[in-house]
């Protein structure tokens, strides 16, 4: 599967919203993505394209030397094909190029596939935010990836 990862643009948002709505119990709104890609100077969002169709996306905030993954999702029909890995590898590279030295994210304990992907890419579980998720009050595992430049 030949995947191209490019910066997210407003014309990608119909497909991004379709993936967002089937991926998360409390999806972000279109306006939130528009703010992130057009106005938020600390944000960096990408989409994964297969045959020019959006099949996944991810984003992060960059504050000082830290990158914080805000969102990553792959269309359900395309999961298990390495697209999430490609998106995350691109975000790691882009964060390192912008001066970040470490990256963090939150993940549900029940999301075993995502946790394995993050561990495979070098993230380590460093803490827990109790009752973090609003939909079911599931905890969030806080994961960190250190030394981004060596991994980019």
Automatic annotation (TrEMBL):
CDD domains, A to Z: NAT_SF
Localisation per UniProt entry: Cytoplasm
Uppermost EC category: transferase
InterPro entries: AcTrfase_RimI/Ard1, Acyl_CoA_acyltransferase, GNAT_dom, YpeA/RimI_acetyltransf
Listed PANTHER family: ACETYLTRANSFERASE, ACETYLTRANSFERASE YPEA
Function of the protein: Acetylates the N-terminal alanine of ribosomal protein bS18.
Protein name, as recorded: [Ribosomal protein bS18]-alanine N-acetyltransferase
The species this protein was found in: Thermodesulfitimonas autotrophica
């Amino acid at each position: 599967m030949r995947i191209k990862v490019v910066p997210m643009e407003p014309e990608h948002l119909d497909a991004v919203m379709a993936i967002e709505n089937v991926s998360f119990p409390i999806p972000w709104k279109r306006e939130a993505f528009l703010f992130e890609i057009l106005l938020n100077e600390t944000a960096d969002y990408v989409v994964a394209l297969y045959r020019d169709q959006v099949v996944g996306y991810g984003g992060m905030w960059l504050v000082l030397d830290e990158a914080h993954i805000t969102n990553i999702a792959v269309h359900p029909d395309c999961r298990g094909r390495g697209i999430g890995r490609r998106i995350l590898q691109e975000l790691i590279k882009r964060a390192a190029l912008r001066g970040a030295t470490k990256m963090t994210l939150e993940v549900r304990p029940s999301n075993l596939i995502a946790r394995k992907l993050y561990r495979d890419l070098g993230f380590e579980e460093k803490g827990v935010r109790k009752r973090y998720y609003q939909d079911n009050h599931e905890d969030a595992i806080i994961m960190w990836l250190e030394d981004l430049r060596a991994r980019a």
